[in-house]
Amino acid sequence: MQGTSSVRQPLVTGGKTYHDVTHDVSRQVEGKPSKLWYMAFLTAASVLALGSIALLTTLWEGIGTWGLNKTVGWAWDITNFVWWVGIGHAGTLISAVLLLFRQKWRTSINRAAEAMTIFAVICAAMFPVIHMGRPWLGAYWALPLPNTYGSLWVNFNSPLLWDVFAISTYFSVSLVFWYIGLIPDFATIRDRATGLRRKIYGALSFGWDGAAKTWMRYESVSLILAGLATPLVLSVHTIVSFDFATSVIPGWHTTIFPPYFVAGAIFSGFAMVLTLMIITRKVYKLEDYITIGHIELMNIVIIITGSIVGIAYITEFFIAWYSGVDAEQYAFINRATGPYWWAYWSMMTCNVISPQLFWIKKIRTSIVATFLLSLVVNIGMWFERFVIIVTSLHRDYLPSSWAMFYPSWADVGVYLFTFGVFFTFFFLFAKFFPVINMAEVKSVLKSTSEKAHK
Amino acid sequence: MERDTHFILGVYVDEDVLLHAVEKVRGSGVKIHEVYSPYPVHGLEHALGYKRSKLPIAAFLFGMLGTSLALTMQFYMMKFDWPMIIGGKNYAAFPDFVPVSFEMTVLLAAFGMVGVFLITSNLKPWAQPRIFDVRSTDDKHIMAIDLANNTSLKEDKIKSILTSSGATEVNRKSFE
Question: How far is the alpha carbon of B147 from chain A, nearest alpha carbon, in Å?
Fold first, then answer.
């Protein structure tokens, strides 16, 4: 069923048939979870439980449990928010933008990447909600409901409110996109199952029967959702960057932020996809579906976006000098040489210097190197947000207000909590949902080797 | 027992054979009830003579609805219902209203289109689909011929048309 082409590398290796695709992916859902899965799941759930102590303390005592002070009013929480949202960009990018560009290699990784997106956005959204202090009143501050806590309505001039709309739209559209893709695969599992599992997956599959007419509509829906999600995914991090760029804080007040944040988001998102997919392919023995070719292509995206981010860092410095504004110049020199120099240079090393190693083919096709560098990139991207947020705030307009930010145990604990949430959800997904989009992989199985047939 | 519960099923392995088979079967005057595939086969909808889906129009209309609702809401709240000076901006600060309008356009377009898709395709958690052959969600393409729609042809004739078009198996399926 699968031929080999001398011209183009097949996307799925190992001479898989359509039935092999069904079997290899469905058996993860049907079999008993492995010991490794239990260990991983329990670890994630324990981190979630431990982190929830910090979360509950924050909710009970208030934001005073965090390391914030009068000068640095945004620090660890917003850093985590932007970091998680950034990670949440790869899934929709892979499934929407790569669909529009007809990059067929997306088919093996889009399902897990979209799942990751959804869980990352859930983690991200927690931070602004918790930071409200009294999240149970949050609906009045975030949604256009008339109230007397401030002005009658929410303020539509505020980028923070745009963020509410951007993040919630992004979350719900990504969720729908993901679920529509899951329906045919749930039907596959339903048709292999009996008893209770058949009932559950039958309900999840919405009664899918694979009729040609439904597939035609499905394709139409996928294409338009991709067309809608592409500007959406670009708009989300653009609006996140507006939270900073529309202010008048030196170091934030730059027009380069939207493209720079979007590139950074794709960069960190791909790194997280790689981290998770390298583990998943190993544990689930999916090496024939997520091949070295896939890893190499993702690494190329990482070099490109990492270099864009690097150019953005240098441009910021240049513009600060060229603008002639003392405050801007000081903000950037302070980043590189001030008390947070270590954060700045961690960011530079992790984001700009180390990804350049991927120019070497041996490194970008090495699984171990890719895995390690993907972790490095995610550390670097966390520092990027920390540097932007904290170093710009900690030197206030009045030197008498200058301060330092040190995270409290609650800051760290709430961050851990979101890790627990993310990985708990991801492991549940990996056990109960098909981790690879079977229908889409089947649809490219023959065409990627058609040259061999004709 | 009703006639329209009896079907002849042609089982096809290869998508290209299937595409030619659909043309051939339709060319011999057999009306195809539907073809069930494990993945989308490009060109199948043309071979079966289906009209293009109108879902893009639904998406566009829902999108326009989203834009209008968002703009109406923002102008009403900020300019008419409770005007406040914020940062010296105009009450009707149109550029500031663009991001929310864009997001609501995307939100309504996506949800509206998907809603229409689920309703027109009869996809819902409690739906009980008629499964002709469980392999149609695994690795086989199943062409279903409704005998009630093809009364002018004998059953054996239909079967031989399917076999000669490349079907690897020809089965008969009846529903209660």
Answer: 18
